[in-house]
């Protein structure tokens, strides 16, 4: 039902005016724990009217950003992105809907959808891949070998500090 609503919205906006957004990169590859800024570019003539701009950022069924009527609604933001994801509002005036995610987690890997409405509507998909840090993984293995009594707790702690070497999304 949600997908139908998005397509209905986009079809309605398409009839109003042809509108195209672009992305500078379709694939971002980042280290676990680092920061990333992904962006969609949209046409702005003269001065941007924030009240007419709609920006949605989603990953699968997780809502990350909902910017409508000049305001970002944090109530709809998925809990896994709370305090880590934000729309860089100063970039909107440059025609960029930039999503910044701090302290990137392995679970952040996936396909993101950027939907923008501004006199028309369009969307683009961007893929995020996350790599773990090898040094953290080696540290975990060494800790496990040195502490046979606490293996279970060490494995758990290491798994959550630096889960895997690489996350693959198709």
The total count of strands amounts to 10
Structural class of the helices, strands and pairings? alpha+beta
| Biggest beta sheet summary | 6 strands, mixed
Beta-strand share of residues: 25-35%
Cα distance spanning the termini: 24 Å
Helix content: 25-40%
What do we call the CATH topology of the largest domain?
Immunoglobulin-like
Return the CATH class of the largest domain: Mainly Beta
Q: From the 3D coordinates, which CATH architecture of the largest domain would you assign? A: Sandwich
Strand line-up across the major sheet: 2-10-9-4-5-6
Compute the CA-based radius of gyration.
Answer: 19 Å
Q: Would you list the SSEs in sequence order as H and E?
A: HEEEEEEEHEEEHH
Mean pLDDT: 80
The total domain count is 2
Under CATH, the homologous superfamily of the largest domain reads Immunoglobulins
Membrane topology: Single-pass type I membrane protein
Protein name: Programmed cell death 1 ligand 1 isoform X5
Pfam families: V-set
Keywords: Cell membrane, Disulfide bond, Glycoprotein, Immunoglobulin domain, Membrane, Receptor, Signal, Transmembrane, Transmembrane helix
Architecture blueprint of SSEs:
Blueprint: H1 2-16, E1 22-23, E2 27-31, E3 36-41, E4 54-59, E5 62-68, E6 71-72, E7 85-87, H2 89-92, E8 96-101, E9 110-117, E10 121-131, H3 134-146, H4 151-161
Helix pairs in contact: 3-4
Q: Can you characterise this structure?
A:
With 170 residues, the chain is of the alpha+beta class. The protein folds into two domains: 2-131, Immunoglobulin-like, CATH 2.60.40.10; 133-170, no CATH class. 25% of the residues lie in helices and 33% in strands. The protein has four helices and ten strands. The chain has helices at 2-16, 89-92, 134-146, 151-161, and strands at residues 22-23, 27-31, 36-41, 54-59, 62-68, 71-72, 85-87, 96-101, 110-117, 121-131. A six-stranded mixed sheet has the order 2-10-9-4-5-6. Strand 9 and strand 10 (121-131) form a beta hairpin. Helix 3 packs antiparallel against helix 4 (151-161). The longest helix has 15 residues, at 2-16. Residues 140-145 and 147-165 have low confidence and may be disordered. This is Programmed cell death 1 ligand 1 isoform X5. It is found in: Cell membrane. It comes from Mustela putorius furo (European domestic ferret). Pfam families: V-set.
């Amino acid at each position: 039902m949600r997908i139908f609503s998005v397509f209905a919205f986009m079809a309605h906006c398409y009839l109003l005016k042809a509108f195209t957004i672009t992305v500078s990169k379709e694939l971002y590859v980042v280290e676990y724990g680092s920061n990333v800024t992904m962006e969609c570019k949209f046409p702005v003539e003269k001065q941007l009217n924030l009240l007419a701009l709609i920006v949605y950022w989603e990953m699968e069924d997780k809502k990350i950003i909902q910017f409508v009527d000049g305001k970002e609604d944090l109530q709809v933001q998925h809990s896994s992105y709370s305090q880590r994801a934000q729309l860089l509002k100063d970039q909107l005036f440059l025609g960029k809907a930039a999503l910044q995610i701090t302290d990137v987690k392995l679970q952040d890997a996936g396909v993101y959808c950027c939907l923008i409405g501004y006199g028309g509507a369009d969307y683009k998909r961007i893929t995020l891949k996350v790599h773990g840090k090898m040094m953290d993984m080696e540290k975990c293995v060494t800790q496990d070998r040195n502490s046979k009594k606490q293996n279970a707790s060490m494995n758990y702690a290491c798994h959550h500090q630096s889960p895997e070497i690489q996350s693959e999304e198709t």
